[in-house]
Automatic annotation (TrEMBL):
Name assigned to this protein: NAD-dependent epimerase/dehydratase family protein
Residue ranges of every copy of the NAD-dependent epimerase/dehydratase domain listed in the record: 5-230
Domain of life assignment: Bacteria
Pfam families in alphabetical order: Epimerase (PF01370)
């Protein structure tokens, strides 16, 4: 049965994939965006440019019926945040803003909200075994703290209001249109830049954007998802060196990976003030995504190889 779904941040990297997947299923999609354009064909855009969704309930059009919400819009993780109080800024958007969306949607008749959190709500690394939903969260930065606080605030709100809450925590998301570190890695590989990644054996979970979108869409309707928290991955973890080699193959570029000892990379990070970036590069961060498979019978529809192929094809056509 088709439904009406509100997608916040519908014109973003993940939002576009989610909107496309919903439409393929036959759902009507309204994209709640700050700036018009870019949400994709067939998405009805609702432009609200108030900070942190202030006044959303008053602005809600009477004609907008909403069965469920996928809440993607967020103040995203920034390595060099320039605001004086980053945690307050993250809380305003990621906690207060999320609660405003939930309350406005509930008043408009929504029965479920799928909140796209982040594995950073739990921590920055895994120590020898994948992180499961049962592990005690210990976020280490303002972004992760705000995402965990938003999860807990939404669960409380759901308990009070009857709105069904589903939490999804992805790791690094990649795919056509990817930005930030993943794009920088592809740029370097495509240009044949030698990279000091040859000795990095630690594995990191990833999720292809279309796999994540498929899981989120499942979570809007499956009755078994209500009240659950899910880690979503491609189901196969690569080391950074394996990822770089796979991307080089897909980009038809040489893999120039220099085997620099991990200890030297750590030292370089300390000397250059970039320890956080280096730790993210060389540290293990694996997620156990078996819970969504066992609870919902959901499995990623695309392999890592397919995801990297699609991403490389997009890169080659646009760069």
């Amino acid at each position: 049965m088709s439904q009406n779904v509100l997608v916040t941040g519908a014109n973003g990297f993940v939002g576009k994939a989610v909107s496309r997947t919903l439409q393929q299923r036959g759902d009507a999609v309204t994209g709640l965006v700050r700036r018009p354009g870019g949400s994709g064909e067939g998405v009805h855009e609702w432009v609200v440019d108030h900070d942190d969704f202030q006044g959303l309930d008053f602005a809600w059009p009477e004609s907008l019926h909403c069965d469920s919400v996928i809440h993607l819009a967020a103040r995203v993780h920034l390595l060099n945040d320039t605001v004086s109080d980053p945690l307050a800024a993250y809380r305003s958007t990621n906690v207060t803003g999320a609660l405003r969306v939930a309350a406005a949607a509930r008043r408009a008749g929504a029965r479920r909200l799928v909140f796209v959190s982040s594995i950073k709500a739990v921590g920055e690394g895994s120590a020898g075994r994948p992180i499961s939903e049962a592990d005690e969260p210990a976020p280490t930065d303002p972004y992760g703290i705000s995402k965990l606080e938003a999860e807990r605030a939404l669960i409380d709100y759901g308990r009070e209001s009857g709105l069904e809450i589903v939490i999804v925590r992805p790791p690094l998301v990649y795919g056509p249109g990817v930005r930030a570190n993943f794009l920088q890695l592809m740029n370097a590989i495509a240009k044949g830049v030698p990279l000091p990644l040859g000795s990095i054996a630690a594995r990191r979970s990833l999720v292809f954007v279309d796999n994540l979108a498929d899981a989120l869409v499942h979570c809007t309707t499956d009755p078994r998802a209500a009240g659950e928290t899910f880690h979503v991955t491609d189901g196969r973890d690569l080391s950074v060196s394996e990822l770089a080699r796979a991307l080089a193959t897909q980009l038809l570029a040489p893999a120039r990976l220099i085997p620099v000892p991990v200890g030297l990379l750590r030292l370089a990070g300390r000397l250059t003030g970039r320890s956080a970036q280096i730790d993210r590069l060389i540290g293990e961060l694996r997620l156990d995504s078996s819970h969504i498979c066992e609870r919902l019978g959901w499995y990623p529809p695309h392999t890592v190889e397919h995801g990297l192929l699609e991403t490389a094809a997009w890169y080659r056509s646009t760069h």
